[in-house]
Amino acid sequence: MPALQWTSDFLMWLFAFDDEFCDEGPVAASPDATLLIITKLQRIVEVPWAAPTDDNYSAALHELRLRLDDLTTPVQTARWSASFRAYLQGQIWMAANGAQGRIPTLSDHLAVRLDSSGVKIFSTLSEIIHGYDLPAADYERHDIRGFVEVFASIIGWSNDLVSYHKERERSQEGYGNIVDLIAYERGCTLEEAVSETAMMHTRAMALYLRLRDQILRDAGPELRRWITDCDSWIRADYDWSLTTNRYVNPENPADLPAGSAASPFQEREADLPLPIASIAWWWTLLKD
Amino acid sequence: MPALQWTSDFLMWLFAFDDEFCDEGPVAASPDATLLIITKLQRIVEVPWAAPTDDNYSAALHELRLRLDDLTTPVQTARWSASFRAYLQGQIWMAANGAQGRIPTLSDHLAVRLDSSGVKIFSTLSEIIHGYDLPAADYERHDIRGFVEVFASIIGWSNDLVSYHKERERSQEGYGNIVDLIAYERGCTLEEAVSETAMMHTRAMALYLRLRDQILRDAGPELRRWITDCDSWIRADYDWSLTTNRYVNPENPADLPAGSAASPFQEREADLPLPIASIAWWWTLLKD
């Protein structure tokens, strides 16, 4: 229960930080300001007992990081810390694109977004919440690293759809959301870009389910637990996203779906690899 | 033997890259150019089979990374990859300080330099060369993480001394070398800053030896091997540094020591913690 409370507190920190420093506000528009804050935060994540905590976010993260040590093994902390550092580092690239007026290719964006979305961090939390250790020999397997990328993209891409309304209201102009990036790169309408994003999401989900079954076939108990915890994160993320005022926005309602499709795989090509250079390798992980 | 050849090839890549992109040349002066190159390189490190390799350094790193998979376990690759990513990320901070004319505090510089010097990468290579697996529960221990910071600083700080001559000849003006940073922060002469750096190095070495003995007291065979491999890296780095033309520079000789001091610990205060906020915590790891 303390680990679940910790996770909830950490996610509050993460969403608040992401809005205030990464999606909105003056720091998000300045790669140099982003660099300075994330350099400070990453030292707190690594060595909390030595880092300066001279602003609210640093002080809160410092407290969270110290509490974490009482709840985890050092290996669990290290996994959380590495994915969190990668999230922080990814923010510089996002800020620099905005500041330079640079529109990245969808392929490059999706590769950086694997880290900068923060979703990979979720994949390190179930060990902490449930108190089990996934062996390093499993955690670092190439197919598991690929599986984490698919997991992160499913949640990240569906978040781009549900948060589009909020971002257009509150964020800087820019191409941080793949809907805008697809519309730009394909020269298509916003509506077509939404459909394209939904199609990408369907294909990633179809791949996820096949990879998942393939990994479970000869998974040990910890890996089995961890994979099924990833399943739960995806389901929980949908349920939360479609009901939270963060995205529903009662004062100026977003046009969100009322629920899930009964059968998400009506698209006949759901099993085809996406022709996007940075992620097409995911499909090579399938053994049959 | 193939792993030793790989290590040698990788170090050639690392030193060439460090000179051309991090210490010297136009990219080193531009945080944005640094960001773009390191974003590309870190994807090659993580997922080599999906990344673009459209310049010499990317193509060479791609080849090195693919060879690595045949020599290592995924856990070894992941440790190398994480330390290498941290090295790459640290370059942005170094470049940004130069571009903004910002002189960091010594404390902040030393914290970033732990990653950006590249020395932490060395600590992941002995497993690869000798083919053994340090258990994750050892590798992620807080005292081992601290030990790696001391290790990285000993080699990094002595490198700042031996490479000073080369950097003044070839690099941008700046504060990438702690000798200049100490002279600036303390308002002292270059000669006094060199003495201060040597004193810091002596104290770090005195701590290293005590921490090393403390860890060895109840270390398993892999941890014992790994710790003594760290010893060898330090000795080898001295031997190489004082004889390589890179630093000796026969055409315009550097004023390097002819050998090691017979007794490095004549300084009476060798056991005192350094009063530098970001690293003073190292001494709290001592149990007696």
Explain what you see.
2 copies of one chain form a homodimer. Chain A is built from 15 helices and no strands. Chain A has 288 residues and is mostly helical. Chain A folds into 2 domains: 1-101; 103-288, Farnesyl Diphosphate Synthase. In chain A, helix 1 runs antiparallel to helix 4 (56-71) and helix 5 (74-100) packs antiparallel against helix 6 (106-116). Chain A is globular, with a radius of gyration of 19 Å. The mean pLDDT of chain A is 91. Chains A and B meet through helix 3, helix 5 and helix 6 of A and helix 3, helix 5, helix 6 and helix 10 of B.
Write a brief structural summary.
2 copies of one chain form a homodimer. With 288 residues, chain A is mainly α. Chain A has 15 helices and no strands.
Low-confidence runs of at least 5 consecutive residues of chain A: none
Number of helices of chain A: 15
Give me the secondary-structure category of chain A.
mainly alpha
Spell out the CATH superfamily of the largest domain in chain A: Farnesyl Diphosphate Synthase
CATH A-level architecture of the largest domain in chain A: Orthogonal Bundle
CATH class value of the largest domain in chain A: Mainly Alpha
Q: Which assembly state applies to the chains in this document?
A: homodimer
Strand content of chain A: under 5%
Q: Note the run of SSEs of chain A as H and E.
A: HHHHHHHHHHHHHHH
* Radius of gyration computed on alpha carbons of chain A: 19 Å
Measure the end-to-end span of chain A.
41 Å
- Envelope shape of chain A: globular
Number of domains of chain A: 2
Total beta strands of chain A: 0
- Could you estimate the helical fraction of the residues of chain A in percent? 55-70%
The greatest inter-chain interface is formed by: A-B, 40 and 41 residues
Organism (chains A, B): Streptomyces sp. NBC_01401
Protein name (chains A, B): Terpene synthase
Cofactor (chains A, B): Mg(2+)
Keywords (chains A, B): Lyase, Magnesium, Metal-binding
